[in-house]
Amino acid sequence: MVHLIWAGMAVIGIIYALFNGTIDQVNEAIFNSAAEAVNLSIGLISILVFWLGLMRIAEKAGILKSLSAVFKPLITRLFPDIPKDHPAMGYILSNFIANLFGLGNAATPMGIKAMKEMKELSGSEKASRSMITFLVINTSSLTLVPTTIIAIRMQYKSAFPTEIVGTTVIATLITTTAAIIIDRIFYLRRVSNR
Amino acid sequence: MNIVSMISVAIIPCTILLILVVGSVKKLPTYELFVEGGKEGVSMAVSLLPYLVGMIVSISIFRSSGALDAAIGLIQPVLSFLSIPGEIAPLALTRPISGTAALAITADLLKIYGPDSFIGRLASTMQGSTDTTFYIITVYFGAVGIRKMGDALKVGLLADIIGIITSIIIVTIVFS
């Protein structure tokens, strides 16, 4: 899917330019934008280093663990199929917390472990109720600190790079809540159709 | 709505404060831990580089040729019906499919319209409040061999649409 978008944009752009006399602009854009992408990636280093460094301290200090304890009562309600003290629940919590703090790299392995445990619980090749809930919450994005975006905003000289944190958190809350409700509706529909 | 901006500004320094205080109280080697974790940040940014170069060049070709504006013009009636600004449409369409493509488009929008413009703020919020549905489903279901994904894709995509619309509403309310 991605390779189609990628090649498609370039191919359509170049053909369009050939017919509309904008090939000069395209030629210039290719080299300027490549250089710019490098600058952008290098610029990302500052925030990523700082944030991931702090998060390592938070992890070792047990802050992430105590946060899981806070969220546990809420999360167990979302997954009525999973016994409270099952390892799956622990992995789900770690995945959510890691996502909240922008630790995508740490979140994915936790998520995969959670899926494995949930598969063992259901023992089928079909996605179980909890798996769907888990995925839907993940795809609706859980973000408290959108580090990469802040870094990009800094690169382009924003007067207030972090001013979008508030709007992002509100939007995430609403979207995730909506996703959970939609997930429930679909679940109830499946059950009543059975 | 000033409160939202105030929290936005204070949340990061306060998080840092909390982490450092707890870390120091627990007598952890905070500096060493910081450096160790920070190294991961370097490799993360470097590994992102080829993805961003590829995507940003492709998007720039598409934009500078004039094809992007033509494409937005074509779907303009649908967009204005949903009250989605045309400039944001490419981001909304790629967000569920590819994380790096969406990131590249966000960067492109921030550059063209400025990070503090309405489009800039909207792109920033949208990028943070939705996620790459197709990628997440592929990775998680693929890793454990789930063949029948049930309603996951449908619900995920519905959530994306809600995320896009919510971002537009929130950014309009907070920043105007």
Automatic annotation (TrEMBL), chain A:
Ribonucleoprotein found in the keyword field: no
Domain Nucleoside transporter/FeoB GTPase Gate: residue ranges: 43-151
Source organism, top-level taxon: Bacteria
InterPro entries: Gate_dom
Transmembrane segments: 6-26, 38-58, 88-112, 132-152, 164-187
Keyword field: Membrane, Transmembrane, Transmembrane helix
Nucleus found in the keyword field: no
Protein name: Spore maturation protein
Source species: Natronobacillus azotifigens
TrEMBL record, chain B:
Domain Nucleoside transporter/FeoB GTPase Gate: 46-146
Coiled-coil region(s): none
Keywords: Membrane, Transmembrane, Transmembrane helix
Gene Ontology CC: plasma membrane
InterPro entries to which the protein is assigned, alphabetical: Gate_dom (IPR011642), SpmB (IPR052549)
Membrane-traversing stretches: 7-25, 45-62, 155-175
Cited Pfam families: Gate
Name used for this protein in its record: Spore maturation protein
